[in-house]
Design a protein that fits this description.
The complex is a heterodimer of chains A (511) and B (104). By secondary structure, chain A is an alpha/beta fold. Chain A has 16 helices and 25 strands. In chain A, the strands form 5 sheets. In chain A, strands 5-4-7-8-3-9-10-11-12 form a 9-stranded mixed sheet, with helices on both faces. In chain A, strands 17-16-18-19-15-20-21-22-23 form a 9-stranded mixed sheet, sandwiched between helices. In chain A, strands 1-2 form a two-stranded antiparallel ribbon. In chain A, a hairpin with an 8-residue loop joins strand 10 and strand 11. Classes of the chains: A alpha/beta (511), B alpha+beta (104). At the A-B interface, strand 6 and helix 6 of A face helix 1, helix 2, strand 4 and helix 3 of B.
């Protein structure tokens, strides 16, 4: 019984590829060979090169790169952009190429029987020369095009994989696939390296390219299942985003912070929780940006650092707005208490935005983060991708113990919900609705705290006004119903009293 | 006219395939090249760096380094005609081939 756990253990090698080790539950199975399969342009070469590069940079483990396709010169040059100085590592004796790329022009004549013994000898030699712990063969498909006799090649590849096993190197072999969702690889390669399979995808989804990585299997060792998005960042390489794999195990705080508005604090039962995510939903021009501005001012006044990510308005606009409400962003930035980052959503994919936001948070270390507006990001993604993005962002900022205020724009003036709201409302801790209320030919504004996780809160829909000093929350709308549905109806006095009495009686009765 | 052929045969260990290739190339040289050749047999297991430099993948492999252009044939060299064709030996050996063979 006690040996049961020992038998199941497979050692893992931490690859160092950001995010990958997380979904791989610690890394690649150590001393084994993993097949990395993907269609053309799915970043197989970058992924495998990074596997060797991170080994050298982070673990001081040497690597051997066997190339069947691109020449070493091409690889050296192409990977320079990610900041990987392969040539430098070669002179330091940390990297060795085995150049099996086809020579242009001459096709070699084949006369009689042959095998790939020389290749195997060269691999063994290269591994011994640099003391390699990691090895890459890119790509297996290309060797089939170099040698017509595929039966021999398959036989030889099988020999190579068994030789690799004896050399105690952790290897990645790449293979092409013709479809994103079909056979694992061409030429039936998976038959002899089937223990561990990773699939890289580059899928066109609603006119947007989405890169994902999936660990199809790691024989005898756990890993996270399903596709995880990843992104290619110049000068860094691949970053896997382990969205839904992130565990919600942050400690909860019951420390309250101010929303920046004493009245709103009162409605929330004493302010927001320090590590909570608040969603503010409202139609355009409804005061969402004002709420954001007050949230920031409230933080800065308490000596907290705030980060504002603006996806809709320019810097100048934001600063002017704030000044209009008597808040001086310029001074806050000069004091190092505020950082305003303005980005157009269309400039990058959501994965890239996420990486960028994380970087900003890690560098600036804010206490508060405001995103205005989150729904602007919907435009650059699919609904599924957007939801994953929000989950990843919220879990990250919760982990960093940052208070978050996100805004969402509703498509209709009166009532209604936005896509943002529908898809992320369960993720957020609190929801504040800002709604227009039409009363006797006049647009008035109403605010309500719809949800406040872990706290008592005001359930009224209160009227608020905006002037040069900011937001002022007043009395509840007592004689209007249907505000949230977008169809306000004015109730008669008598009716109101009757309903009111009904509830008081019920209350008394239940107590 | 006195062009000398520089031939290198790469093998991987003393396998039956290797031995067949060595025997075949020796016979070709003696029969067809009329003494105008230098043959070097390289065991890749002993000198892997040479195979790396020359980008040898498959063995047995025969290269003709001189006279240029460089050419290469892979396999146990069991078909003499194809070897001569593949190494582009005909133009040089063509005229002396039959005489050389008869005289030898």
């Amino acid at each position: 019984m006690s040996t049961k756990t020992k038998v199941a253990q497979v050692d893992k090698l931490e690859t160092g590829i950001p995010g990958f080790d997380f979904i791989a539950d610690g890394g690649l199975p150590k001393g084994r060979t993993t097949l990395v399969s993907g269609s053309a342009g799915s970043a197989k070469t970058v992924f495998t090169t990074q596997f060797l590069a991170e080994g050298i940079i982070k673990a001081n483990e040497s690597g051997v790169f066997i190339t069947f396709e691109e020449s070493p010169a091409d690889i050296r040059r192409n990977m320079m952009g990610f900041g990987w100085d392969i040539e430098g590592w070669e002179t330091e004796g940390k990297w060795a190429f085995v150049d099996a790329s086809p020579e242009p022009g001459n096709t070699t004549l084949i006369v009689g029987e042959y095998d790939l013994g020389a290749l195997i000898a060269r691999i063994e030699h290269a591994v011994g020369k640099v003391g390699a712990k990691r090895l890459v063969m890119d790509s297996l498909g290309a060797i089939f095009t170099q040698f017509a006799d595929s039966a021999t090649v398959r036989n030889e590849l099988f020999r190579i994989t068994s030789v690799l096993k004896t050399m105690d190197v952790t290897a990645m072999l790449t293979a092409e696939r013709t479809e994103e969702y079909g056979n694992i690889a061409r030429f039936g390669i998976e038959e002899f390296v089937a223990d561990n399979v990773i699939i890289l995808r580059n899928v066109l989804e609603q006119e947007k390219r989405r890169r994902t990585i999936e660990i199809l299997k790691f024989r005898g060792t756990p890993h996270h299942k399903g596709e995880y998005p990843f992104t290619l960042i110049p000068s860094e390489g691949i970053i896997v985003i382990p969205l839904s794999a992130i565990e919600l195990k942050q400690k909860l705080s019951d420390i309250r912070i101010t929303s920046g508005s004493p009245e709103l604090d009162k409605m929330c039962g004493g302010g927001f929780f320090r590590d909570s995510i608040v969603l503010v939903s409202g139609a355009t021009g409804n005061g969402k940006t004002l709420l954001v501005t007050e949230f920031i001012a409230g933080g800065v006044n308490n000596g907290e650092k705030c980060l504002l990510l603006a996806f809709e308005e320019s810097r100048e606009q934001l600063f002017r707005n704030a000044t209009g409400w008597g808040i001086d962003y310029k001074w806050m930035e000069k004091e190092g208490k505020l950082k305003v980052v303005c980005v157009y959503p269309e400039t990058a994919g959501l994965e890239d935005h996420l990486i960028k936001i994380r970087k900003e948070i890690s560098q600036f270390k804010p206490n508060r983060l405001a995103v205005d507006s989150l729904s602007a990001l919907e435009r650059v993604s699919t609904i599924k991708g957007f939801r994953e993005f929000v989950i990843a962002l919220t879990s990250f900022i919760k982990y960093e113990e940052v208070a978050g205020l996100f805004t969402a724009t509703t498509p209709t003036l009166m009532g209604g919900t936005s896509i943002t709201e529908t898809h992320i409302s369960t993720i957020t801790d609190s929801i504040i609705l800002l709604r227009y209320v039409e009363m006797y030919g006049e647009m008035r504004r109403g605010l309500t705290v719809l949800k406040m996780r872990g706290s008592r809160h005001d359930k009224d829909i209160r009227e608020y006004t905006i002037d040069g000093t900011g937001m002022h929350i007043g009395k509840p709308f007592r004689d209007v119903t249907g505000i949230l549905a977008g169809t306000p109806v004015h109730a008669r006095r008598g009716e109101l009293e009757r309903v009111g009495a009904l509830f008081t009686e019920e209350k008394v009765g239940s107590e | 006219m006195k062009d000398k052929f520089l031939l290198k045969l790469y093998i991987t260990g003393q396998t039956p395939k290797s031995e067949r290739a060595v025997a075949n190339i020796r016979r070709i040289c003696e029969q067809e090249l009329n003494g105008r050749y230098e043959l070097v047999v390289i065991d890749v297991l002993e000198r892997p760096q040479l195979a790396e430099d020359e980008k040898i993948l498959a063995t047995p492999a025969l290269t003709k380094e001189l006279p240029p252009p460089l050419s290469r044939v892979i396999g146990d060299l069991s078909n003499i005609e194809k070897v001569l064709l593949g190494l582009d030996l005909q133009p040089y050996a063509g005229t002396s081939k039959k005489q050389g063979g008869d005289e030898g």
